[in-house]
Amino acid sequence: MNERPVIAVTYNLEELHVLVHWRQMFRGIVEAGATPMAIDTGSHLIDTETLIANVDGLIISGGGDISPHLYGGLVDDPTLWGVNDVRDANEINMLASAQRVGRPVLAICRGLHLVNATMGGTIWQDLDRDHPTNVSHRLGEHALLQAAHPVALDPDSAVARWTSTTAITVNSQHHQGIRTLAPRLRATARSQDGIVEGFENQDGSLVGIQWHPEIFWPNDTHSLNVLSGFASDCAAAIIPRRTAASGTM
Q: Which residues, at least 6 apart from 50, have a Cβ–Cβ distance to it below 8 Å?
């Protein structure tokens, strides 16, 4: 039997009463063929080096807004919700640790914003106010169980490889979005209004998506394929990690 990859999944314990579909994410990761390891990043600083050394991949999940300090935003913006500096610090460190040792990373919604800002990009602080378009991006937590709008995928992207298509329909629940993309990232998905809905780094080991396949997967084949594709990429990291840990060739 093939070994299931272990994927660290970040979350903030204090937000679970609001994020009503949280459990769906862990069920989806199991359905995709991996073992999730839940990491509360919002309460205290974590030894990220040790943590990442003992998993095969990392999902930086959704949740509250990232700190405006990360992208030069307004700290007193009334639209901000759930900013947690401890969570930001932990996830930035986890991202750096994962990249140092070659672990695949999937950054979802808030995670996409965090990665982009950390790597030098900027964020629209509130889309409805600062960059309104004809596409509704924030439909409410319960609407995450249904399709919201189409997204076009770069045919050479990891998500296109995972889903075997270049056009998908996604769910949506975000009031912020990518304003300028970080220099070392390339846009791989866009909604009809031109908003960047996905990116990846040069070798595809770091993938960011704006939508929530970890919730939509029971109702959408492409969403499950995103999770399964990422799990497969993480599985490829199992042997190198085990070999390094045992000191064998």
A: none
Tokens 């998500």 found at: 159
34 vs 26: CA distance, rounded Å: 10
Cα separation, 36 vs 114, in Å, equals 21
Spot the catalytic one: 149, 174, 212, 222.
212
Among the listed residues 91, 197, 200, 214, the single catalytic one is 214
Using the structure block, give the residue that is written with the tokens 């700190």. Answer: 67
Q: Quick check: is 14 catalytic?
A: no
**13 Cβ neighbours under 8 A, 6+ residues apart:** 40, 42, 43
> Tokens 């970040």, residue?
10
Kindly state the tokens that stand for 6: 């272990």
Helix (H) or strand (E) holding 35: strand 35-40
**Active-site annotation holds for 131:** no
pLDDT digits (tens, 9 = 90+) for 44-98: 999 999 999 999 999 999 999 999 999 999 999 999 999 999 999 999 999 999 9
Q: How far apart are CA 243 and CA 25, in angstroms?
A: 29
Q: Is 212 a catalytic residue?
A: yes
> Of the residues 109, 113, 200, 222, which is catalytic?
109
DSSP output for 124-173? ES-HHHHS--SS--B--GGGGGS--EEEEE-TTSHHHHHHT-SEEEE--B
pTM of the predicted protein model: 0.94
Q: Is the Cβ–Cβ distance between 34 and 7 less than 8 Å?
A: yes
